[in-house]
Amino acid sequence: MDAGFWTSQNALLGSQFAMDTVSNNIANINTVGFKQNVTNFQDLIYQTTSAGTASTNPIQIGLGAQIASNSLDLSQGSIQPSNVATNIAINGNGFFMVQNGPASSPNYYFTRAGNFSFDGANNLVDPNGNFVVGWTASPNSTGSGYTLPTNPQTGVPTGTAGPINISNYQKVPATASTYIKMQANLDSSSSVNEYSPATSNIGFNVLFDSNGNSLNVQPGNNFQISYDGGQTWHTYEYTPSGSTSQPNTEGFSTIGDLVSSMQNDIGPNATVSLNNGQITITNNGTQNLNIMVRPTSQDPSFTGTASDNIKLDTVMEALNQIVLPGQSVNSQTLNTASHTVNAFFYDSTGAKHNLDITFNKINTNQWSYQATLPNNDGTLSNNSGVINFDANGGLDPSTTSPTINVSLNNGATNLNLLLNFWNTPNAAYSGNQFTGLTQFALPSNTTFLTQDGSPSGTLQSVNFDTQGNLIGSYSNGNSYTIAKVAIANFTNPQGLAQVGSNLYQITANTDTPQTIASKSYIGVAGFGSRGTISPSSLEQSNASIDQALTNMIIYERAFQANSKSIQTIDQILQTAISLKQ
Question: What average pLDDT does the segment 313-341 reach?
Answer without folding.
Answer: 97
